[in-house]
Amino acid sequence: MENKKTPLFEQHNKLGAKSAPFGGWLMPIQYEGIINEHQWTRNNCSVFDICHMGEFMIQADALLSNLDKVLTQNLVNMPLKTCKYGFMLNDNAGIIDDVIIYRIEQDKWMLVVNAATAPADFEHIKKHLAKDNVKIDNVSNSLAKLDLQGPLSREVLVEIAGEGILNLDYYGFDYFSVLGENIIISRTGYTGEMGFELYINNDKVIDLWNLLLENKNVKPAGLGARDTLRLEVCYPLYGQDISLKTSPLEAGLASFMDMKKDFMGKAAIEKKQQQGLGKKLCCFQTESRRAPRHDYEILVNNQKAGIVTSGSYSPSLGCGIGMGYIAEQYSDIGTEISLEHENIKINAQVVKRPFYKKGSLRG
Fold this sequence. Notes:
Layout: E1 4-5, H1 9-14, E2 18-22, E3 25-30, H2 34-43, E4 45-49, E5 54-59, H3 67-70, E6 83-89, E7 95-105, E8 108-113, H4 118-128, E9 135-138, E10 143-149, H5 153-161, E11 173-178, E12 181-186, E13 195-201, H6 202-213, E14 218-220, H7 223-232, H8 266-275, E15 279-286, E16 297-300, E17 303-314, E18 319-327, E19 336-341, E20 344-351
Parallel strand pairs: 1-3, 4-14
Antiparallel strand pairs: 2-3, 4-10, 5-8, 5-9, 6-7, 7-8, 10-13, 11-12, 12-13, 15-18, 15-20, 16-17, 16-19, 17-18, 19-20
Helix pairs in contact: 2-7
């Protein structure tokens, strides 16, 4: 099957981007280089094309429609114009997807999902929502998404969208007039820096992209830098660090489940809590610039103890970093491990998350 292209594909080509398939889409991986784009985001401001993500608009009472049961977070007590990160689980507590839910009005929601899982997510939600007085629309093909990330992102947006941007709290959003449209801008992101996510109609996204790049503090960044940025702050990537084979408990993400309410997979979560976890998602740092890759084996005392799910050189720390599932008995901070693949062996140590602690996220 041919990879899809975002409305910005030709813009990326003009900027000399190197593109590659990701989640069924042909996406820009880098422009000037991953390390340069990473450092620019940490110190200035970068714009990312995230138009491949999926968005669903849902008109429904959270409780009566079962929407609150489909997601692990409590929707009933969410204030208007806030959003939450959470999960959709199956009955075995496997993660169907990690999502962000936006409460636009009392009974109006936007759900943002991963690109590769969007079709299955939509069918899963439709299957489990009540049929009466519920409306769900997949607007992924008409709604574009840009991420503006970095310590200067707020002042860049003030010039474009006005001083109302200054009123957005972390995980808050509102509508702002940009290019003649009212668009959703949320103070969220995937980099560990001050950042915003902008949702605009497809036919205006090229204009918005170019408008942002007119600012001397803004440069384009690709998915390569996005991956190193998110890894430095230990944000999981669906399909690698979390999946149907893992639960939020094993991934260390229990805080994004409200155990006081009912949700799909809760019984399995409670069972895991009682029985204990066989594995845990741990963070590790290498002794050199060498970095592990996905599927490297994790060994303790020359015995296989786990598997690497994400790994990279860290531009901010100057060493290799990664995440992986390790047998629970070897998951303590400070545990010496080795990361091995064929003739490669890299010494590392389990460390506390996150790796990078100097971000402007809540600034």
